Amino acid sequence: MNQPDCIFCKVVSGQIPSVKIFENEHVLAFLDIGPVSDGHTLVIPKAHCSRLDDVEPQAMLEIAKVLPKLAATVQKAMNASAYNVLCNNGAAAGQVVEHLHFHIIPRNADDDVFNHWPAYQYPENKATEIAEKIKQNLNL
Ligand code: AMP
Ligand code: ZN
Hints:
The chain contains 3 helices and 5 strands, in the order αβββαββα. By secondary structure, the chain is of the alpha+beta class. Bound molecules: adenosine monophosphate and zinc ion.
C-alpha cells in the first residue's frame, strides 16, 4: 500500500511532518510546503498510486467525496474569490512527486499566479482528426 521511498507515503505515515487540514481513512489534505498562494493545499489518496490513470476507482471515489468541499472551504477561509484544482501527471506536465495529488490553489483577480494560458486554434479538420485518434484509443 505504501511505497518506502515515496515522500507523500511518508507524509501519510507521519515519518515526514505535515500541516494537515483534513484526514479520514482514505484521504489526507495538507498544506503545500511550497505554496503558490496562501492556503495552497494538496489532497492525496492515502494508498500509494503514482498518477490519475493508475488510481483505484474506489480511492478516486473517496477523493471525489471530499475534494469539492475542501476546495470551497479553502477558498472561503483564504477570502479568495476563486480556486484552481490542478493534477500534474508525468514529469513533462510538471509532476515532481509521483504520488497522485490534487492541488487546491486559492485565486484572486490579478494575482499573477498563472498569467499565461497558451491557447490556440485548430486549423480546419484537425479537431475531428484528433477526436478520432482519441476515440480509437478509448477503452472504457
Ligand atoms: P507536483 O509538481 O504536482 O508534483 O507538486 C508537488 C508539490 O508537492 C509541490 O507543490 C511541492 O511544494 C509539494 N511538496 C513536496 N514535498 C512536500 C512536503 N513534504 N509537504 C508538503 N508539500 C510538499
Ligand atoms: Zn506514495
